[in-house]
Write a structure and sequence with these properties.
The chain is an alpha/beta fold. It is built from 14 helices and twelve strands. The protein folds into two domains: about 240 residues, 3-Layer(aba) Sandwich (Alkaline Phosphatase, subunit A); about 130 residues, no CATH class.
Length: about 400
Amino acid sequence: MKHLVVLIDGAADDPIDSLGGKTPLEAAHKPYMDMLAQKGECRLLETVPSHLSPGSDIANLAIMGYDPDKYYSGRSPLEGVSMGVEILDTDTTFRTNVVTLSDDTEYENKTMIDYSAGEITTAESTQLIKYLDEKLGCKLYRLFPGVSYRHLLLWHDMLPDIRFTPPHDISGKKITEYLPGDDMLLDLMKKSYELLSDHPINKDRISRGLNPANSVWFWGQGTKPLLPNFKEKYGKNGSMISAVDLLKGIAICAGMKSIDVEGATGTIDTNFEGKTEAAILEFKDGQDFVYIHLEAPDECGHHFDTEGKVKSLEFIDEKVVGPLYEYLKGCGDDFSILVTPDHATPIVKGTHTHDKIPYIIYRSNQPIEGVPSYCEKCATGNADFAGYKIMDYFINGKA
């Protein structure tokens, strides 16, 4: 049996006035998702325990079947693994965003204008991170470029647990009370602002009306991860298709194939068709489990973009869920599809929440009478298992 997971990052939401009191999932035209919900199981699930932060790292680990309380060691090391960075047992890593801070006042009183520096291109941000590493890197710490605004700081020492705030949680706010409680890290952030503010790349971006990447922002502290092998755990040859290092890192740590797709950006302009084609190729090549991660709804949620979130859900239905359902149906073999967010990213809040998420499990050999539509409101009650048990339930039929 083939198993497909369509992970729609941050899709769950709250009712929005501009949508007539509907959520983006309710408002979107998504005939394939609705059809799967009508013939499958649609319930609510808590993916992140209340004592943990509702990040994509913890939520996706749970969806993949790994208990976050046992296996979570931080977000950044998972990304570092995907980037090919060697992480020692004694190292600490940090997600390093390039962000846009206001250019007025002293550093501590600046405002977080844009956590992604206008979704800066990888080509531009790579040059900036390499420049900072050349100027600031040393035997104790190094900076490594990633994708778009997402990069890595590797610190060759075990640092104490320090309070960090994800930059997407403080859009439009003064950074004063959210700065890291470590003088060396704060000094690095200040120095990055001094070096980046007048960099030619940022001058060019400003001239084009784009937000400059004028500072780094550290968060997502972690240490070297260790996950059980996915095939040994579930007996499935698995592939991960994602544009972001976090998901690729989880796949690599779990012994899965990580597939790169040209033009995959993690935003609404991503190569949806390319991801779908890659998933079909993986099935044709003998893989019996494919996890396709689509981040566009989450990015729209962080940017308070209601129209974009609805449109991204419609794109995913049309360009991903529909073609993959038709392909699997045409193969003539039994298959199962799990469609789910990892967490909620409500438009009105612009960040992740602990709200329960609605999932669909459709089994071609066991169609049932489901619900009228795939949305938060139609989900029939709560799942009777912990979030990290959903993979056992999806693959084996029991949690």
